[in-house]
Every structure is written in structure tokens, then in C-alpha cells.
Amino acid sequence: MTLQQLKYILTIAETGSMNKASEQLYVSQPNLTSAVKELENELGFSVFHRSGRGVTLTADGVEFAAYARQVLMQMEALNDRFLSGTSRRKHFAVSTQHYSFAVQAFARTVQEYDPANYDFAIRETKTQTVIDDVALLRSEIGILYLSDFNRSIMTKMFKAKGVEFHPLAHCRAYVYLSTAHPLAKEKGITLAQLQDYPCLSFEQGEHDSFYFAEEILTTREYPRTIHTTDRATNLNLLVALNAYTLCSGVICEELNGPDFVAVPYLDDSENPNSVMEIGYLTKKGMKVSGMGQRYIEEITRYLNEYTRRLE
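Predicted structure:
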């Protein structure tokens, strides 16, 4: 096993393609394939599933890639510290479901550090990707939620991926819509009142199931659902189509602007309310960095401040 092989594995996992990986690594595809096969023979298991759609990590491959990333990170640190003569730029990355408060907390954290000394990244992405990013150490922290509906499935996945969930706040469901929406001034909104308006839902790709949905109350079938992939599109459609989405009620006016409002969802016997437990993921057994701790403090402060306003 060589460091070069570890780098090959991680690049293939990140690109999902032998062709793309070979281009990035400046190595021929036959040589890349041969190196991977040689490593798999040495390990005694397959690192990748191979199909016409590309390559994905096997269960063993996910665990192996996580360790490989740690090894390469440590090797880079050694080289930068003792061979380059310069201090290594520190990395800090967060992966999150589409939450403006997670972005705002990230911005406030970054403001406290000198960007010249750090390599920052924040990824608003699909639920499965949030979990995979933390499992593979692409991100130190992942932000998502659990509910009574998805908790069992998600907890099993966390265990399989080697990540841990840490709760931060509990929120009930709210209807998020434009201030120009006909229902924006209501004290509370029922699903019956929403039946004539489009419901926005973040697309989850191949993992597009109830359990991975970012919107709460996903067991309900919405007749006018529009799938989107980013928060900016959601905000535009809320205005353009008098659409709505169901959320935690924790919104960031500093980023989204003043033209949106969260109205309490009013449940009934057929459509009960539910509680979102917002929290963060870390890699099991990994110590959170100083910057990671600062980010957690900032997002906790923001969530506590906002949930108190909603009570």
C-alpha cells in the first residue's frame, strides 16, 4: 500500500468516475485501474462498486477512504511543517442541509480568523452528501435534523458510516412563505389552506426518499410539489409562484432579506405537527478542532436566540 494509491482512491471517490480521476491525477486510466486493482487484491476486498453510471465506494471502501484521508492529511501536515519551511494553511469545512442560519453562523465564525491562514469551505447540499462528507472527512461538521419519522433510519445510517449526531435545538414546524403571499398575515396555517399553492422541496438525487427530505411532515402527499436544488431558487419561487415550504421557523433575515415570514403550522388529527431536532454530525472518534468548537458555539447561540423568539 502506497500514499499514491491512497490519493488515487480518494480522487476516484470524490469524482465518481475513473475518467475524471485520471484527468485530475494526470495518469492514464489503464494505469489508474491497475493501481486500484492491485490495492484491492492486497486489501482482500473491493473498494468500489463499478457500474455503467460510474464508481461508488463499497461499505468497506467508505471506512477505508476515511482512514486514507486521515493518513494523507497527516502526511501533508508533516511535509508542510518540516519540509516546506512554511506553516500549513489550516482547513475547516462544513456540510449542511439548506439552512441560512448554518451559513450565517459560518460567516460569523470565519470573521474571527485570518483567511490568509485558513482554507474555508461550506457546502449546502443533499442529506446523503452531508453524511458522506463527514464520514470521509471532507467536512469536519455536518448540519441536519432528525424527527420521529426519520430518526430510526438515520441513526442506523450514522452508525454504518461511522459518524455521531449531537443535538442542538428542538423546533416545531412552520410554513415559510413570501410576505406578499395571501396567507402571510395569518396567525397560523393549516394544510387545507395550503392545498392550492405549490410546495417546494429540496431534491435529494438518487436518495430522494421521505427519510432524506429536508422538509418536515414529508409523509404527507402534496399535490403541487416543485423540486429545487438550491436555496436561492427556493426564495425566488416563493415570491414568483406564491409557493411555500415547511421548515423549522429559524430563518436568517440578514441573508434571506425581510421579504419572507415563518407562520406556525396548525395541525389537526390527520396532519399532526412534528418536532425537528437540529444537530451536528462529527466523525466518530475524531476530536473537534478549535474552529469547529467555535462554529458549534456560534450556531448554538443563534439557534437558542431564535427559538426563544418563537416560543
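Summary: The chain is about 40% helix and 20% strand.
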